[in-house]
Design a protein that fits this description.
mainly alpha
């Protein structure tokens, strides 16, 4: 019974989405080591713990306030990559329990931020305030960024250069263009991810008066915003390399472009059919995650020093450990999608074969 309860809470955490905070946080510390030769493992671990706890709290805050406003209260479109965790709408967790949980997580994350701000500079406190403000008030009243069409931009700034510059500053105690350019693509890709996840929720969001960009301007506009923002994210990587703010090795992050084009194709064809566009939502998760991992690997190669193994390897080790749950989830989803595709092809083949026999 206790194990089942843990599974329910794990579902409520939606840990697989914490990669949006984890990736720029890890990369910010790595850039400080690569560019400045500065790295403190204790501070780095504290940053990562704070970011993960804050993101879990953000996920539950969104669930809680969306449930209160009857947004995503009922799963009617069959797309597993949009909407909330479903733990509140299915009665698995009481709203008061979830509120208590995300309050505790916020308190711990804020405590870590204040501790780092006292030791490493007041700029951390400024970023802490901005990060908490964007996380909590994304769906919480009275501001509710996500309900007024400002949520996507707020998350772009926070979950890209905001986190990246903060993680870099904790190590180097200054800001830099390298940290900005290195983590900006993550923020833009998160904008893309939020946009594509809003498309299946179009009708539910409008009913709940959650007027994000897609609900406000329509699904067709959402498709255009998604395509343009994702291409712009890749463009920032190329520009960053040309400006020598990103290592040349960072070009390997463009290896995810074929996934992006496949995602474009599925989205354009099925953007009005939430269940059928699920592979596009999965594709965007893969694009964000794999692009980030490849860019992190590029900085790992650039900054590796055999006489400083802790600074060189610790970020990669932490990424590997924390990414295992997300990687397993993506792996199962990709395998399931592949098997479904093969079954469809097999059914079509059998159908053609049956028709042929009937004609003969």
């Amino acid at each position: 019974m206790r194990f089942e309860s843990l599974r329910v809470w794990w579902r409520a955490f939606r840990f697989h989405y914490t990669s949006a905070s984890l990736m720029p946080g890890i990369l910010g510390g790595m850039i400080a080591w690569t560019v400045e030769g500065l790295f403190d493992s204790g501070y780095f671990i504290l940053v990562i713990v704070g970011l993960v706890l804050n993101h879990i709290a953000l996920n539950m805050t969104d669930d809680y306030y969306d449930f209160r406003h009857l947004v995503d209260a009922f799963d009617t479109h069959g797309n597993p990559y949009s909407g909330g965790s479903g733990t509140l709408s299915k009665g698995l967790i009481r709203p008061s329990q979830m509120k208590n949980a995300f309050t505790v997580f916020y308190i711990i994350a804020i405590g870590i931020g204040i501790f780092l701000g006292i030791l490493r500079g007041t700029f951390i406190l400024f970023l802490l305030f901005g990060g908490f403000f964007c996380a909590f008030f994304y769906t919480a009243p009275p501001i509710r960024f996500g309900y007024r069409g400002f949520g996507e931009i707020a998350q772009l700034l926070c979950f890209g250069p905001g986190i990246g510059l903060g993680s870099y500053y904790v190590q180097a105690q200054k800001i830099s263009w390298e940290a900005f350019w290195g983590t900006l693509p993550f923020g833009i890709m998160l904008f893309s991810m939020i946009t594509i996840n809003e498309i299946p929720d179009y009708f539910e969001d409008r009913k709940g008066e959650k007027l994000n960009l897609v609900a406000r301007f329509g699904r067709e506009t959402g498709v255009k915003l998604f395509v343009l923002s994702l291409l712009f994210a890749y463009g920032t990587i190329i520009v960053g390399i040309l400006l020598r703010k990103i290592p040349v090795m960072g070009i390997i992050s463009l290896l995810t472009l074929p996934i992006a084009f496949k995602t474009f194709s599925i989205l354009r064809k099925h953007y009005q059919e939430p269940a059928k566009m699920a592979p596009a939502n999965l594709g965007m998760i893969c694009i964000h995650n794999f692009t980030a991992i490849l860019l992190i690997f590029a900085y790992f190669i650039e900054g590796f020093k055999s006489n400083a193994l802790v600074a060189s390897l610790l970020p990669i080790i932490i990424l590997t450990i924390l990414y295992i749950p997300t990687g397993r989830l993506i792996g199962r989803a990709v395998l399931s999608s592949t098997l479904k595709g093969k079954l469809k092809c097999l059914n079509r083949t059998q159908g053609f074969s049956s028709r042929g026999k009937e004609e003969i």
